[in-house]
Amino acid sequence: MSTPNTRLAAFLEQCRNQIDAELERQLCASGQGSERLQQAMRYSVLGGGKRIRPALCLAAATALGQPRESAIVPACSLELIHAYSLIHDDLPAMDNDDLRRGRATTHIAFDEATAILAGDALQTLAFGWLAEAPGVDDQVRLAMIRELATASGHQGMAGGQAIDLESVGKQLTVEQLENMHRHKTGALIAASVRMGALTATDVNEDQLAALTVYSQTLGLAFQVQDDLLDIEGDTTVIGKPQGSDLARSKPTYPSLMGADGARNYLSQLLESALASIEMFGVEGDLLRDMAGYVVARTH
């Protein structure tokens, strides 16, 4: 029997290979319109990345006994939304970052207008792919489109980013910080798990509720670790400037709790995430492995 580390490593490699192959196949297909725009889209999506959200989508499908192939397109649509959000996050009007995934951000590699359009195009493309996802019926497609729209719009990621921009230089409470990150980071992570679960037509309410708690808790854990990496990580490893949140006076978990307090909270979140999926047997092991990976990652 494989250990959790070797099992997860094999799963993540297989997931990256499957997702990257599908993303490249779709994005590199000949199409009409601006070649420069298509280059910017490919640059943003195919330039590395951990593929955590697609991996969570596939792991959730596995936990419910569903073949991973049925979750490949939903997983890819999640990565398109994530890539679009990073492009817009990095813009001068937002975080004004020059480095992402160890190389120039899209607006630096191309130009600001092209970056905005690339983000817009990736967002709409995600819903186009999802609307034609094979292996699921129309009702499931509709449910996944609704899930992704809610998670990425004003009730989710976009709303969280707005709160983030409004909070620069302000002293937030822990509750206010969590509200921001449940939207900005957690909503898309929760959608990743729930969309993977929705590919299983026999998923029941108890299972979906447990996976929702797991994913929401994991979304907060992801952000706590991100905040710790911002003060403790190496720029060459994390792929973006170390200390950038501190330099912009952005509220973070370490700034509110201290580094040790944030680490303790991270451990509590991991424990809660694992407890929430106790109902799943060995089929849920990949979700357990992913939780451990999220809180221990170095980039």
From TrEMBL:
Source superkingdom: Bacteria
GO molecular function, one term: prenyltransferase activity
Cellular component terms (Gene Ontology): cytoplasm
Keywords of this entry: Isoprene biosynthesis, Magnesium, Metal-binding, Transferase
Keyword rRNA processing: no
GO process terms (BP): phospholipid biosynthetic process; terpenoid biosynthetic process
CDD domains found in the cross-reference section: Trans_IPPS_HT (cd00685)
Cofactor list: Mg(2+)
Keyword Transferase: yes
Gene3D superfamilies the UniProt entry points to: Farnesyl Diphosphate Synthase (1.10.600.10)
Family listed: Belongs to the FPP/GGPP synthase family.
Protein name according to UniProt: Geranyltranstransferase
